[in-house]
Amino acid sequence: MDLLVLQLQLTTLAVGLLFLIVAAVTIWQTVEIVDAYEKEALTVFGEYRKLLEPGFNIIPPFVSRTYAFDMRTQTLDVPQQEAITRDNSPVTADAVVYIKVMDAKKAFLEVDNYKRAVSNLAQTTLRAVLGDMELDDTLNKRQEINAKIRKELDEPTDEWGIRVESVEVREVNPSKEVQQAMEQQTSAERRRRAMILEAQGERRSAVETAEGDKQSDIIRAQGEKQSQILEAQGDAISTVLRAKSAEAMGERAIIERGMESLERIGQGESSTFILPQELTSLVGRYGKTLTGSDVQEQRDSKARSSTTKPARCSGLTISTRFSARSIRPPRWTSSNSNRRPRRSRPARRISPARRPMSTNRISPAPISTRPMSTRS
Question: Please, which residues have CB within 8 angstroms of residue 325's CB and are 6 or more apart in sequence?
Fold first, then answer.
């Protein structure tokens, strides 16, 4: 009897324990918790029912299945692809595609594996875009390549509920032969630029040197010009001074000859003589030369008039015609100065023969003298 009761208790305990286990599993299968960045597709007996939103969800236990979709932006690496450009140059390129699930239902129902599908589509599109471009364009126009690939991916991915946010081509590498040729071309271009820069530097240096030589020549020419001007001015001044000195010496010789003539006239027996104006002018210049100033000339010019005045000397009377610039001739004493001069009648004025003085001869102009009748 005790054995039967014990068996009954053990059976009851096992059933209760089994019930608890079944209840726990049922609860676990009924409750579905979805993360905030996900959405889940719910199927019951293989039939699509709905999308489970983030949070706590109740689903039919044991007959339901869920498929999670990450709603964040995802990165897909496109493997390296080989392509032939339009100019028959082989290149290799890889890229990165950024996608985002916009409709989890389409991504679940329209495509088996949207990530693999987008990656394969990006590979074929990359090869097609590179094949339509030349080598230089594939190396230089990355943005254009990215835009073309994205445009080609937009239409099919929209049907899958996927949006391609951006495409970035990471590397485009030509073949090794092309790379070597490009390196040689780059080296040649660098050498050409270096030669151009060197030539420009030499040209600038030559221009600066020529400009310096030009300025130096200009300054030297200006200095020589100024020196020649000063030398010419000095020669001109020296010539003028020598000419003035020669002229003064010539006039002095003329004056001395004139004075000698006056002295010979004064030693004659006649008491009245008529002298030409040129001789009186020479006498005036002689007096100016002797005095060395114009004061005596001004004093003498005030003392005599500009008309002809008789000048009395001891034993003779000289009638002269003075100009405004002449001075009074010196008095000459005759040899018979002890004899008292007699009163004579005014001499009749006779115009002397005027002859211009020659500028080419140093001798003075001839003096015309005519003895006048005197009363004994």
Answer: 281, 284, 297, 301
Cα separation of 223 and 220, whole Å? 5
Burial class from Cβ neighbours inside 10 Å (0-12, 13-18, 19+) for residue 192 reads exposed
- Which residues contact residue 119 at a Cβ distance below 8 angstroms, ignoring those fewer than 6 apart? 76, 77, 78, 79, 97
Q: Give 287-329 pLDDT, tens digit per residue.
A: 555 444 444 444 555 555 444 444 343 333 444 443 334 344 4
> How many other β-carbons are positioned within 10 Å of the β-carbon of residue 83?
19
Using alpha carbons, select from 140, 138, 146 the residue that is nearest to residue 168: 146
Cα separation, 114 vs 202, whole angstroms: 65
Structure tokens at 277: 């104006």
d(CA 277, CA 306): 12
Specify the fold of 72-180. Answer: Tetrahydropterin Synthase; Chain A (3.30.479)
Q: With 0-12 CB in 10 A as exposed, 13-18 as middle and 19+ as buried, what is 258? A: buried
Q: Domain boundaries in the chain?
A: 28-71, 72-180, 246-336+347-376
What's the average model confidence in pLDDT over 61-65? 89
Its pTM stands at 0.49
Question: Quick one: angle between helices 295-303 and 277-291, nearest 10?
Answer: 140
**pLDDT (0 to 100) of residue 338:** 43
